[in-house]
Records
---
Amino acid sequence: MGGRDEVDKWVVRSEAGKGETFGEIAERSLSRRAFLKSASLTSMAVVAALAVGTEPAAAQRAPLGLRFQPIAPTAPDVDDLVVPDGYFARTLIRWGEPLAADVPAHNVWAQTPALQARQFGYNCDFVGFLPLPLGSTNSNRGLLAVNHEYTNEELMFPGYDAKNPTRNQVDVGIEAHGVSVVEIQRAPDGNWSYVRDSPYNRRLTGTTPMRISGPAASHPWMKTVADPAGATVLGTLNNCAGGKTPWGTILTAEENFHQYFGNLQGLDADDPRYAAHRRYGMPAEQSERGWELYHDRFDVAKDPNEGFRFGWMVEFDPYDPNMVPVKRTTMGRFRHEAATIALAPSGQVVAYTGDDAQFEYVYKFVTRGRFNASNRQANMNMLDEGTLYVARFNDDGTGQWLPLVFGQGPLTPANGFADQADVLVKTRQAADAVGATKMDRPEDIETNPVNRKVYIVLTNNTRRGAEGQAGPDKANPRANNATGHIIELTETGNNHAATTFRWEIFLLAGRPEDPSTYFAGYDKSKVSPIGAPDNITFDLSGNMWIATDGAPRAIKLNDGFFAVPVAGTERGHVQQFFSSVAGSEVCGPEFTPDNRSLFLAIQHPGEGGTFEEPISTWPDRVGLPRPSVVYIGAWDSRPIGR
Ligand code: FEO
Ligand code: CA
Ligand code: CA
């Protein structure tokens, strides 16, 4: 292993100008004894301090604003990354790069499932930086956990025939899904590299054994011929966004899992599982990748239950490469996009997550137990007990979190719910029953550590207001919403465990000349065009940073990355910081703790082209486009955007 172990002093300035490290702030805010018991738990303590209301001094000020020269957007055929003057963007790791010393680099003419299972996966999405050592705030060395959402076989294999994939193509594709964990290190010049032979490096793929936990583990529909106990499932699929827990584990969200299961039409339409699968959008005929041609578990007619074992939130420990990942059924089953964790003043852990499909819902999960800052192990199964809620947005700017608890309200046998396991396996139907608000595709949901508000990204919904579909409402105010919007939600008492909230529209994205756009009231003549927001994050000052997915379609520009203050006179001033390459979306925005490096995942570069007729050659400039994680820094090492 290479790299340096020193822990950065992550300094924030108090009102009085006195510098304090986050460690010092945490020390003030927690029992000194508990803190000293485990010096390695500093980052957990920081999270606790932020969530329970002992705010660092920086949190008591307005955001400091942004100081970079915004870039001009690029046309969808431009195949270059663009950053502002004073910054550089470089590739950190690309699809196919080996994660062990004895693994060769990817060779398209000799690729095998076994090699792909030990190489960086395809279509990187969520990116989580976890400092090394565990519990530090080191910005120079850490683990990068990266989701691999899906595969573009037409770009991965020469002569790919979607109707007749080969066994090798199918099995490589399955291994190219999942998650990568890779150790990375930053050199003094700001350049990052990955450690090819690190013992932390790991792949989770579509075949990695995972434990099923929580109430739904015992549900009859979770049991298969291969797993009669309903306790173990092979793999995780369509891992989109995710989150980091205060105890240093990763949550990876299984999103569009339905697309991997074919032949629903082969299941008896009177079988109750038929309707359940239809509600989740499973295709009637051959699936997009045809995995069921070689693996019966992906054929719904042959194995009607395997599909119920996907659509969950998966937790794993990136610091322990031998840990068996766990599907936490308490957090519901739907097309999970995100998993953002916040702490309530009580110490209860709250996870915000959404169902990314048109007219689907926003959820949060609140644990029964409380976060233990001094005993990491005590938190490891915290997510197995708690309450799942779904959001109702009222037109008057108020809202409720409606519990999805068996026996409460309509969630009874009379309405088709036998027990809590049933409520969780059929989360969408339960949310329908309680009258939640149908949203314009909930993508990322993130909490702002400075103002503690919750931001919900609705990426688009072109069917809103179409014939036979729901029309606009106050929370989803545009018919044919092609460009998306962002809602700002304030929990009652700033308590993430509250069951009521207030909300308002923060942004209605689009080209600013579009009269339906809204930038929190900011002067539209000064903002950058932005379309289809997807993933967001916040810098140390609480400014929002937005990655987009779908701008080429929505506003005829390449996807990019944008910054916008959420407070003060600059609130709503959207400025473009980064533009991506042809055919790609931008994902996984993640700052190092010192904000001096930024990681972005460039997903599906060249989508729309084929292996034979590429529209992108990024990043190698020869041959295939390769989904990759890039890092961005300033030439003078200043924090990003400052
Ligand atoms: Fe995979 Fe919701 O984007
Ligand atoms: Ca997404
Ligand atoms: Ca998306």
Note: The domain at 22-92+118-147+161-223+240-255+311-600+617-634 is CATH 2.120.10.30 (Neuraminidase).
---
Amino acid sequence: MKAVQYRTVGAAPEVVEIPKPVPGPGQILLKVTAAGVCHSDIAVMSWPAEQLTYPMPLTLGHEGVGTVVELGEGAEGVSIGDNVAVYGPWGCGTCVNCAEGRENYCLRAEELGIMPPGLGNPGAMAEYMIVDNARHLVQIGDLDPVKTVSLTDAGLTPYHAIKRSLPKLVPGATAVVIGTGGLGHVAIQLLRAMTAVKVVALDVTEDKLELARKVGAHETVLSDENAAAKVRELTGGTGAEVVLDFVGVDATVKTAGAVASVDSDVTIVGIGGGLLPVGFGVLPFATSVTAPYWGSRKELAEVIELAHAGAVDVHVETFSIDEAPLAYERLHDGKINGRAVILPNG
Ligand code: NAD
Ligand code: ZN
Ligand code: ZN
């Protein structure tokens, strides 16, 4: 079968021919219908060899949707022909966090060497993929797989970030979304579907801001050195109750801190390595800063319910599996509006 692999540190991903996998006991084989292209993969492919803990070659793709085509011995909970989305942050399944379905915060994953598909284990950018356990699958029924696939990360990750801040997202409050790409453009829709706040979106190009407005941002601001002052102005001077940073570089975390109100939540989702100092008097009083990871199994089920309700519509650009390296190149160059999605089976 064809697969998109990261094979050489620092090199572009390659489309290669590898054997079709066979599901072991308890495992499920999916014929992949769609696989999303996330900016995290670009970060992974920029790491030096010392930092890269994943075995190489690595089949990419941590957003996947497919059809169940084969069950390993004893695998239960799904049936041949089911259309399913893959929950990516696999955990041990039994620690206290996994017991709550919060496998993204598994206490033992690192110790046990458990890694997500596409980020250690073979991922969804292939004609077929193995899922380790049926609990990592969510039924999508008749949802369009191409529009649904990115809800597993570009939907789930912002949903998890927004849920922590729901008590602050009351009518009259403002939420700032920094970076309106794959994750950010879904975050805007989730905020609109789940709250009645004012949504202010920041990005670096007019194209991205246009998409932000189209998907529901009330106000858009170019992300430059004047951005913080403009956002504060839009909040009547008091700042935003919730700031979601989907870039996470020094410049954006600085903006995030500068637009935060007293008793606000600043959530750094982007993995750009920016540092935001926290200490008495550094940020407005009682500002809470966190850097979460992905989301829980229950939250993915909730995001899929939102899709069934018609509340989220991922803006997708599709590519064949042979075009996957081009999709990564375009994402790297900031030329994807919304999410790039690979169709491994045409
Ligand atoms: P993307 O490339 O689709 O979107 C990023 C957006 O940020 C683009 O629209 C880009 O124009 C914009 N941007 C770049 N610099 C900016 C700046 N200075 N100010 C404002 N906007 C700027 O990327 P994505 O796939 O949506 O991922 C977003 C980030 O989230 C990445 O860092 C990714 O690695 C990270 N991520 C984190 C998690 C997590 O669990 N914490 C999960 C998924 C992705
Ligand atoms: Zn991702
Ligand atoms: Zn666990």
Note: Residues 159 and 190 are 7 Å apart (CA to CA).
